């Protein structure tokens, strides 16, 4: 006896234009019901027998999908998942046992153990993950921004993923209200991630190489980023294609089953970071478009990065202005031509949502401007690295005021856009062009101010005294002092200044660990959410306390899952890839086969 999932709805079909002119609260609503139907019966006969002739009173119905007993056959993706997870478990067990035996039985220093044999050791990888050595060049405020942004994404997905509510009208009214803005405005968090990516790209690369070195090692520059993102992304693909689909079941298992089917077909576009162009409506790991854009922007970044690493500030700033102007000009032409909405939650233009997502939201065109702004701030942070930056208090206060004004105005416009009577294409286009770079500049200033001691002002006189002392201490430094001592003194002075409330909050130690594993939390929270929601056997009731509880629950589950997978998969492969890349940069001669390490000869498992 198959299980059919039916949808019933009113005949009236509302459009985007008359969306806000509904005269009936039930207009356009859909009622879904799962029923068991005997094989000889048609859907019409079963519905009429179960209820009555619903078509006669204005309802229409249709079959969405059909579940049959034992409808999860074993496929190749399941074999690959078992092989992969078994291999990880065996390597983890052997590697951890080797290191513990070496340390606690042989009583030797762990640094003397073979790095390849202990690459999968839980003992060492956990220690590294929870260790946070002090460094004068660390941008500590980024941990707070990254963690808060990740939490914002998870919270928004919790609110948007629940369905079949007992009181959908209350949820809909709340989402349209100002109180729901902190959820509906969550898409701007993606631009925050791209700002941080641009900042760190320039800030970290500028320490390691110049422009010509970048050109010579361009293949390693690309390979390093791709390999850095690969282990957890590949794990997410495997889990979506197999384990998450097998691990449980429920009345509405469609989202999980759909993700599994898509990953079995389009796994390769996700691993090649092409899914946002080749199959944007059928993506494997549906939120992995962010990872694809990250890689694509890194591929484009040397166009500007070369000039930033060239050492000439005038040329570098000219390149920043030129690339940003070209990007914004192209975005203006693109948006004017397509006339798309400006937000993922714009009910009055709901019919254009898929076009907006596939043609703009998942597109490099929408993310390149915040990425370039981040690169500009990263370059400025590099120029001011380990320097005492003295800024007039009025200027600092004005820049903070402008930052909050930009962020507040952005949130206000996103509130206006989600109203049912919104209909202003010119403003939508302007928002698509200007909103993201403006938000990026606000986040960039926040980072810059926190790093250089302007993360919320202290008393003016105290700051002036600190600055004077800092300059005096810097001037008294001996020219012959080695670089380590010099960095230590400068770091002490910077820490003396960074006492503002915003910088203090964003640099709290509690943000460090979740900030470090935020990539895993981003990748795995959504599939886990689908599994949990799919197993529900009753309709949830919408209330803010109930949703907040689920938000905290999913945060905790995502944190634990990300921690475990980072220790057992991401950290080991990062070590192996780093060793291979280091060999590629320093090796001048080919090795003979008998000279290669064991891990260099191990074949890689391909996912088919």
Automatic annotation (TrEMBL):
Transmembrane segments: 80-105, 151-169, 181-206, 227-245, 289-309, 316-340, 360-382, 394-415, 435-455, 519-541, 547-577
Limits of the Acyltransferase domain: 141-450
Keyword list, A-Z: Membrane, Transmembrane, Transmembrane helix
One Pfam family matching this protein: Acyl_transf_3
Highest taxon in the source lineage: Eukaryota
InterPro entries the UniProt entry points to: Acyl_transf_3_dom (IPR002656), O2_lipid_transport_reg (IPR052728)
Keyword Membrane: yes
Protein name (database record): Acyltransferase 3 domain-containing protein
Organism whose genome encodes this protein: Iphiclides podalirius
């Amino acid at each position: 006896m198959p299980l059919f999932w039916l949808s019933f709805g009113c005949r009236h079909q509302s459009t985007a234009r008359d969306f806000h002119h509904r005269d009936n609260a039930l207009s356009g609503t859909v009622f879904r019901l799962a029923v068991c139907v005997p094989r000889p019966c048609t859907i019409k006969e079963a519905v009429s027998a179960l209820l009555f002739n619903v078509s006669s009173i204005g309802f229409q119905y249709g079959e969405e999908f059909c579940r049959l007993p034992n409808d999860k056959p074993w496929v190749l993706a399941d074999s690959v998942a078992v092989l992969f997870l078994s291999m990880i478990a065996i390597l983890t067990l052997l590697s951890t046992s080797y290191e513990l035996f070496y340390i606690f039985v042989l009583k030797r220093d762990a640094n003397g153990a073979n790095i390849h044999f202990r690459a999968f050791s839980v003992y060492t990888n956990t220690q590294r993950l929870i260790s946070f050595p002090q460094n004068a060049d660390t941008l500590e405020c980024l941990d707070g921004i990254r963690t808060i942004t990740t939490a914002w994404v998870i919270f928004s997905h919790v609110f948007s993923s629940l369905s079949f509510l007992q009181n959908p009208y209350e949820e809909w009214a709340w989402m349209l209200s100002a109180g729901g803005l902190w959820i509906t405005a969550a898409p701007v968090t993606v631009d925050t991630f791209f700002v941080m990516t641009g900042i760190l790209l320039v800030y970290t690369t500028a320490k390691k190489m110049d422009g010509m070195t970048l050109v010579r090692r361009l293949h390693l520059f690309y390979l390093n980023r791709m390999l850095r993102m690969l282990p957890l992304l590949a794990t997410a693909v495997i889990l979506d294609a197999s384990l998450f689909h097998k691990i449980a079941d429920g009345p509405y298992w469609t989202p999980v089953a759909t993700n599994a089917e898509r990953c079995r077909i389009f796994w390769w576009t996700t691993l090649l970071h092409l899914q946002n162009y080749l199959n944007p409506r059928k993506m494997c790991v549906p939120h992995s478009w962010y990872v694809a854009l990250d890689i694509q922007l890194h591929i484009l970044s040397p166009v500007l990065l070369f000039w930033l690493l060239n050492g000439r500030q005038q040329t570098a700033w000219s390149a920043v202005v030129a690339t940003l102007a070209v990007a914004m000009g192209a975005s203006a032409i693109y948006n004017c031509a397509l006339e798309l909405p400006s937000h993922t939650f714009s009910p009055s233009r709901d019919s254009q949502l898929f076009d907006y997502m596939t043609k703009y939201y998942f597109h490099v065109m929408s993310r390149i401007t915040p990425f370039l702004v981040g690169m500009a701030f990263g370059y400025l942070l590099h120029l001011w690295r380990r320097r005492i930056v003295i800024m007039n208090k009025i200027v600092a206060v004005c820049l903070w005021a402008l930052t909050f004004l930009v962020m507040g105005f952005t949130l206000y416009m996103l509130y206006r856009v989600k109203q049912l009577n919104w209909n202003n294409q010119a403003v939508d286009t302007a928002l698509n062009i200007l909103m993201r770079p403006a938000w990026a500049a606000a986040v960039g200033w926040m980072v810059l101010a926190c790093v250089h001691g302007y993360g919320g002002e202290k008393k003016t006189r105290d700051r002036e005294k600190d600055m004077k002392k800092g300059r005096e201490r810097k001037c008294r430094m001996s020219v012959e002092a080695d670089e380590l001592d010099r960095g230590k003194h400068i770091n002490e002075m910077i820490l003396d200044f960074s006492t503002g409330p915003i910088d203090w909050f964003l640099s709290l130690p509690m943000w460090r660990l979740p900030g470090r594993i935020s990539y895993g939390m981003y990748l795995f929270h959504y599939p886990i959410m689908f599994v949990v929601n799919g197993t529900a056997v009753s309709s949830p009731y919408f209330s803010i306390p109930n949703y907040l509880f689920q938000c905290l629950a999913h945060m905790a589950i995502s944190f634990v899952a990300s921690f475990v997978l980072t220790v057992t998969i991401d950290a080991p492969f990062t070590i192996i890839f780093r060793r291979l890349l280091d060999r590629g940069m320093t090796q001048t001669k080919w090795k003979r086969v008998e000279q290669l390490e064991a891990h260099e000869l191990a074949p890689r498992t391909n996912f088919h």
